[in-house]
Design a protein that fits this description.
The protein is built from 15 helices and 12 strands. By secondary structure, the protein is of the alpha/beta class. Among the domains are: 124 residues, no CATH class; 31 residues, no CATH class. The chain has a 9-stranded mixed beta sheet with strand order 1-2-3-4-5-6-7-8-9. A 3-stranded antiparallel beta sheet has the order 10-11-12, with no helix packed on it. Helix 12 runs parallel beside helix 13. It is globular and about 70 Å long. It starts with 28 loop residues before the first helix and ends in a 5-residue tail after the last strand.
Length: 408
């Protein structure tokens, strides 16, 4: 596989900027207040990287300055020995790339467990591969045409993008890292559109990647126009982590453009409360204020969100930001992720601890994703039967008898 430092040309795969996009489009007005606030995350990142705060709110600056090697990371952050070694020994296994914004959220003390560092910095523990595969969901066999994944008859995942603001260490699409030229590739997009248009059973298209928001507004608008022109496509969804790792990309202008093609939904990917910065909340606000429903899909990760004390602030913060917690994914069995995996029994205990302690709106569905589709995992509150009574364990651990077999 390629290393991050070997492939600066990959970024040139991004669609050319349409003439109507100007420099002011990358300095959105709604983020300027963070540039003028010396206490903001934006100002802190500007000082950390030695640039102006105006540079920081330009999302393309972050993509140009992605941190992808240990020497670059060490210039702005003290690294633990496992992290320094990880950059060196894993450079040919899975590309590293971290936006300055996301680097700025990391705890500067490497001796302190930091959920942001665990998600983004390579670690030597990734070499421990007793279990794990490159394509845990068998997406390749489920692809009728390249980069269109169809597991269900009525929906597809359309992987139009290759680039990401941050390459998460637990990513289940690491296999795509070794393939160049996948980012908004015209031939791939054309073939995908043709397949979707030819199959009237498809009513729901999830646009994903990579991260599809790492493209110009014009490229995204063109894609939406083509999808919305297909009569049987009812719903268009985007899967993006930009509100979490590059919030400046999610501008009010982008949201207003997307809203022209309703119904459109966005699912994002916050894993811990530390990611819910004012800048991230502003990105979400831009989407929701444009009438775009936003859901969240987390991945259950060791020392990131695998306890009630860590999960509750995330769920409450999401609801406050008007984001609906949608799925909590059990981590896929991907190579190099064993140090982040959590036993399913622990996941079920976590889910049980949430019920009764937060509104049902804030409780995601715990999911095990399989090659045949998603399987919901729920704590079993049914204890058994006693005659006509169904014996239930309520949220306080008490037994409740419900007349289960009575009919009018």
């Amino acid at each position: 596989m390629r290393s991050h430092s070997d492939t600066p040309e990959v970024r040139s795969c991004q669609p050319a900027l349409p003439e109507r996009e100007t420099e002011s489009d990358f300095l959105p007005e709604e983020f300027r207040r963070f540039a003028t606030d010396p206490a903001s995350v934006t100002s802190r990142i500007a000082a950390q990287f030695g640039v102006s705060a105006e540079s920081v709110i330009n999302w393309r600056w972050h993509m140009r300055r992605q941190v992808g090697d240990g020497a670059s990371a060490a210039k702005v952050l003290s690294l633990a020995a496992s992290e320094s070694e990880g950059f060196n020994v894993l450079k040919d296994a899975f590309v590293a790339g971290i936006t300055p914004y996301y680097m700025g959220l990391m705890n500067p003390d490497p001796s302190v467990s930091c959920p942001i560092r665990l998600q983004a910095l390579p670690r030597r523990e990734e070499l421990d591969v007793r279990h794990g595969v490159m394509d845990p969901l068998d997406e390749v066999p489920h692809s009728p045409v390249k980069e269109v994944v169809q597991v269900y008859p009525d929906r597809v995942a359309f992987c139009v993008a290759q680039l990401c603001p941050v390459y998460c260490r637990y990513c289940f699409r690491k296999r795509r890292d070794e393939e160049d030229g996948l980012h908004f590739n015209r031939r791939i997009v054309d073939n995908g559109i043709a397949y979707i248009a030819s199959n009237p059973a498809i009513r729901d298209v999830l646009v994903t990647g990579g991260d599809p928001f790492i493209a110009s507004d014009g490229a995204l608008e063109n894609l939406l126009e083509r999808l919305r022109a297909i009569p049987h496509v009812d719903i268009i969804r985007f899967g993006t982590r930009t509100p979490v790792t590059l919030p400046y990309r999610v501008t009010a202008k982008l949201a207003q453009m997307i809203a022209k093609f309703h119904p459109v939904w966005v699912n994002t990917h916050f894993n811990c409360a530390e990611e819910l910065t004012p800048e991230a909340v502003q990105a979400v606000r831009n989407l929701v204020d444009a009438g775009i429903p936003v859901g969240n899909q987390s991945v259950l990760l060791r020392d990131v969100n695998d306890s009630r004390d860590r999960m509750m602030p995330l769920l409450r913060g999401l609801l406050k930001a008007r984001v609906r917690p949608y799925y909590l994914f059990h981590p896929h069995l991907v190579e190099g992720t064993e140090h982040l995996r959590v036993p399913i029994d622990d996941g079920l205990k976590l889910m049980k601890s949430l019920r009764g302690n937060i509104t049902g709106l804030g409780i995601p569905t715990y999911i095990v994703d399989t090659p045949s589709g998603k399987v919901p995992m729920m704590p079993n509150h049914v204890l058994g039967r006693d005659g006509e009574d169904l014996l239930l364990e309520d949220v306080r651990g008490q037994i409740w008898r419900e007349k289960a077999s009575l009919r009018p």
